[in-house]
Amino acid sequence: MTTQRKETKRGQILDAAVLEIARHGYYGTTVAAIASRAGIADGTVYLYFKSKEEILVSIFERAMQRFIDEARRIVDGKPAGAESKLRRLVSLHLSLLGQDRDLAVIFQVEFRHTIHVLELLSRSRIREYLALMAQVVEQGKQEGVFKADVEPLFAAKSVFGILDEMATDWVLSKKNIRLSSRSGPVCDLLLDGLSAS
Amino acid sequence: MTTQRKETKRGQILDAAVLEIARHGYYGTTVAAIASRAGIADGTVYLYFKSKEEILVSIFERAMQRFIDEARRIVDGKPAGAESKLRRLVSLHLSLLGQDRDLAVIFQVEFRHTIHVLELLSRSRIREYLALMAQVVEQGKQEGVFKADVEPLFAAKSVFGILDEMATDWVLSKKNIRLSSRSGPVCDLLLDGLSAS
DNA sequence: CCTAGAACTGAATATCTATTCAGTATGGTA
DNA sequence: TACCATACTGAATAGATATTCAGTTCTAGG
User: Fold this and answer.
1) What are the tens digits of pLDDT across the range A28-78?
2) C-alpha distance from B172 to closest chain A C-alpha (Å)
3) Residues of B (18-57) whose Cβ lies below 8 Å from A
4) CA angle, A74 then A158 then B96, to 5°
5) Bases in strand C with any atom closer than 7 Å to a protein CB
6) Which of A140, B30, B122, B145 has its CB surrounded by the most CB atoms within 10 Å?
7) Is the C-beta atom of B160 closer than 7 angstroms to strand D?
8) Distances (CA, A) of A126 to A2, B8, B16, B165, B172
C-alpha cells in the first residue's frame, strides 16, 4: 500500500472522527463509532493513531495548518494596505469555519477542553496564528492608518476574540445565516469602534 | 439540620468541585475526588446532587447568577452615561474572573463542552448577560454617543468575545499580570477602534 | 435520657470502552 | 503458482468510575 493510499485512509478516519465528535463530543464518541463510520475495524484505527487522543490532536493540526497557511498567504503575499489585509483575514477565518459546521463545532466547543489535553500544542499553534494578525496590525501602525498606541498582540487577541465569539454564536444558534456575512460588521467595529465620530 | 446548614454543605461540595475540576478537567475529576476534598463520603454527594453533571450545572448557575446580578445593578442602577456603564461592565467581567482563577479556568475551558452537556441552560443564561450589555449599547445609541448603525446585540457579542479571549489568554498564560488591568485597553479599543483618527 | 427521623457512610455493583493481539486477508513479485 | 510483507480484523482484556443502598451515626425535641 502506497504512502498516498495510507494518507487517504488516515484522512478518512479523521473525517469520520470530525463527524462523530461534532455530534457527540469527544468523550461521547467511542473509538468503535469512529471506526464504524470510517468503515473499518476498531483495531485498524490503532494502525494509524497511537490513541484516541492523538486523533483529536490530528484533527486540530490538520485544520490549523490550513488556517495558518492561508493567513500567511494574505499577510506575506502580494503587498496591500493593512486595512485590506485585516479585512481579508477576518473574512478567511469566518469562511473557513463557516463552510464546515462540524469542524466549527469541534473548534468552538471540543477544543476548549484543551487546557488539559492539548494545552501546549494548541496554544502554540494559535499563538502562531495570532502573530500573523499582529503582524498586520504592526504594518498598519507603520503606515499610520492604525493608532500608534495600540499593542499589536493585544489587538490581534481582540480580533480573534470577536471572531471566536461570532463563530461560537453561529455554531450554537439554529438560525441559518451565513457565518461569513458577519465579516463586514466585525471589521467595521474593529476599525472604527462603537463611539459616534 | 437546618436549611442554612444544608446550603452550606452544598456550597462546600461545589467549592471542592470547582477546585478539582479546574485542576483535572470535568472528565478527569472523579466524584470520589470531589467528595474526598469536601471531606465527606462519596455517597453523600448524591444527597445534594442528582448526578455528577448536576454539579457542573450548579457551578455554572451559581457563578452566572453573580455575573448577572452585578451586571444588572450597573445597567439598571443609578443613572449614568452609556460609556461609563460599558466601562464598568467590562471591568466587572474581568474582575470577577480575575479574582478566582479556578472558577475562570472552568468558565473559559470546561464549560465549553456545553454544546452537549449544558447547551440550553448555559446559552440562555449567557443570552441574559448579553442582553444587559446590549441594553447599554442601545442606551448609548439613544444618547447619540454610540454610532446609530450599530446593532446592539452584535456589539454585545463583540464585547463579550473580546472579554472572553482576554480571560482565556490569562487563564492559559503563566504570566502573573492582573486580568483586570486589561480593562482600560479593552474599552478604548471597543470605543474608538484600531483606525488612526 | 430516649427516640425517631434525618444525615451520612463506603463497599459493592453494573456498565462502559480504550486498547491489544492472535489470527486472517490482500496484493505485489519472482 | 508460491511466497512474503503489509494491512486488516474483531473478540477478549483490563481498568476505570458513577451510582446505589443497607447499615450506621447524629441530633433535636420531648
Assistant:
1) 999 999 999 999 999 999 999 999 999 999 999 999 999 999 999 999 998
2) 7
3) 24-25, 27-28
4) 160
5) 6-12, 17-22
6) A140
7) no
8) 33, 41, 32, 12, 12
For chain A, how big is the Rg over CA atoms in Å?
19
On the CB side of A126, CA atoms within 13 Å amount to 23
Task: Copy the grid coordinates of residue A11.
Answer: 484522512
C-alpha cell at B8: 452550606
Which one of B158, B171, B186 has the shortest CB-CB distance to A165?
Answer: B158
Query: Residue A139: CB partners within 8 Å, gap ≥ 6?
Result: A82, A85
Q: Which of residues 73-92 of B touch A (CB under 8 A)?
A: 83, 86
Radius of gyration of chain B (CA): 19
Where residue B25 falls (left for φ over 0; alpha for ψ -120 to 50; beta otherwise) is: left
> Mind listing the pLDDT tens digit for each residue in A80-117?
999 999 999 999 999 999 999 999 988 887 776 654 55
Tens of pLDDT, residue by residue over B55-110, are 998 999 999 999 999 999 999 999 999 999 999 999 999 999 999 999 998 888 77
Length reported for chain A: 197
Is the minimum CB–CB distance between A144 and chain B shorter than 8 Å? yes
Nucleotide nearest to B32 (CA to C1'): D17
CB A123 within 8 A of CB A50: no
